[in-house]
Amino acid sequence: MFSLGDYVVYPYHGAGRVEKIEEKEILGNKLLYFVVYFPLNQVTLMLPENKIGASGLRPVISKSELDDVLEALFDESTLTETIPAKPYSRENETLLKTGSIHDAARVIAALHAKKAERTNGLHIEDRKNLERATQFLVSEIRNIDGFSEEDAKLFIQEYIPASR
Predict the structure, then answer these.
(1) What is the pLDDT of residues 60-117, one digit of tens each?
(2) What is the number of other CB atoms lying within 10 angstroms of the CB of residue 106?
(3) 164 within some domain
(4) Eight-state DSSP code of residue 151
(5) Which residue intervals define the domain CarD-like/TRCF RNAP-interacting in the entry (predicted)?
(6) Which of 56, 71, 107, 163 could form a disulfide with 11 if both were Cys (CB 3.0 to 4.6 A apart)?
């Protein structure tokens, strides 16, 4: 499970930190609750231990898992599957709600490619999804040992091909 001070990711909230672990008695049942603060949304959530698995709460990826994120940012084959034909599609929003860093990276790659193909830029909802996906990636990568927020932003920019 998680310990005090652990960095975790919760779907559609980005990365946060376990601030407290409290035992509460509700209706005669004692349960451990994880109190997690998410700076991206400035939200604090209290999640019961018995619901953690179903909630999608997961640890922040490790430095060794960054290669998989790079593949999602750079892999041309995922772009044709992810870019919708319509000016705007909810598919990218759905991917962001999974809480997967790989899905967020795919959204970034797809929307950068879509932006490069369009003469009038992205639809406002696509721009919001691109910003949100970038925020999710930055919020998680900056919690990996050796990365600052600026390093995380540079990491993302560096690995998006210039043609996008």
Answers:
(1) 999 889 888 888 887 655 555 555 556 667 888 899 999 999 999 999 988 888 888 8
(2) 24
(3) no
(4) H
(5) 1-112
(6) 56
